[in-house]
Every structure is written in structure tokens, then in C-alpha cells.
Design a protein that fits this description.
The chain has 7 helices and 2 strands, in the order αααααααββ. α1 packs antiparallel against α2, α2 crosses α4 and α3 packs antiparallel against α4. By secondary structure, the protein is mainly α. The chain has a two-stranded antiparallel sheet with strand order 1-2.
Length: about 170
């Protein structure tokens, strides 16, 4: 029962701080995994060594990517600093996940156009917007007709990440 209340507090703080629903969901999942890793002990009863053990377990036993381990770390920092209002834990000596040395596979212009050519309707429109403008999926899905100004070559993105997109 205490776990449920804690996760509700996490959601409340996420909403007050205007974090995205995906961030809230990710943080809740990491905090839940952390609690279960330590046999359902309340995080207030755990120390920096418990956090270190969990993060090291992710890298060594679960072989997570460095970005995944960082996300778990940030979720736990959020839990201790923002939700539990505790002093930051001195977390050192964590076995770090290895960063990927391979480059991501990216479509060539021709391959991207071939994929888009096989789509129809709204799917084609959204894929074209994603490819041509650099919009993220949810930014493109949330667009309305009034958000596009063809004469100025501008798209107004609501509730998106602050960044500049050149068309």
C-alpha cells in the first residue's frame, strides 16, 4: 500500500513540474523496479549503496544501455530530491553501462522516399512531416490545420520540446 501512495506522489510531483506523461511513466517504472529490487523496502529506508547496487545491477546483470542506466539514475534522483525531499545521496563507484560504439542506421534520402511512397492518407502526411520537418511523432500527430502557415513556411508546434526547426 505504501508503494502505491509513493507512486501517486511521484505522479503528483511530475504533474506539478509539467513533465511529460512518458517521463512520468518511465520514472514510475524505474522507481517501482528499484523498490522491487530491494524486496519492497521503502526508498526512505535505503541509502546511497542501495542506489549504487541497483544501478550496477542494471549495467552488469541486465546489460542495459548507458542511456537506459542514466534514465534510471535520473528517476532515482528525482525520487529522492523532488518527491522525498531528501538530501542528494553521494552515489559514487557505480559500474557504468558501456556506451554503444556503433553508429545508428539511417535511411538514405532514396530509401526514405521509397517508404513514404508506399503510404497513403494520414500515414503518408505524418511520415512526410516527420521526415521533412524534423517533428517528433506526437508533435506531428497533435498538429491542426491552423498550425500550418504555408505563406510563411511555418508550423506552430504546441507542447513540444523547445528547439528551432528550419524548414
Amino acid at each position: 500500500m505504501a508503494e502505491r501512495k509513493l507512486l501517486d506522489q511521484v505522479s503528483d510531483v511530475c504533474r506539478v513540474r509539467h513533465l511529460s506523461l512518458r517521463t512520468e511513466e518511465a520514472y514510475r517504472n524505474w522507481i517501482k523496479r528499484y523498490i522491487f529490487f530491494h524486496n519492497k523496502r521503502h526508498p526512505r529506508d535505503l541509502d546511497a549503496e542501495a542506489v549504487r547496487d541497483f544501478l550496477t545491477h542494471l549495467a552488469v546483470n541486465e546489460h542495459v544501455a548507458a542511456s537506459t542506466q542514466n534514465q534510471a539514475f535520473n528517476a532515482l534522483l528525482f525520487l529522492y530530491r523532488q518527491v522525498l525531499k531528501m538530501e542528494p545521496l553521494n552515489i559514487t563507484g557505480v559500474e557504468r553501462a558501456r556506451t554503444s560504439r556503433s553508429l545508428p542506421v539511417v535511411f538514405s534520402k532514396e530509401e526514405a522516399n521509397a517508404v513514404i511512397a508506399h503510404l497513403k492518407g494520414e500515414d503518408k502526411l505524418i511520415a512526410s512531416l516527420l521526415y521533412g520537418s524534423g517533428l517528433r511523432i506526437m508533435e506531428a500527430v497533435r498538429l491542426r490545420v491552423k498550425d500550418i502557415d504555408f505563406s510563411r513556411g511555418e508550423i506552430t508546434v504546441r507542447d513540444g520540446s523547445p528547439r528551432e526547426i528550419n524548414l
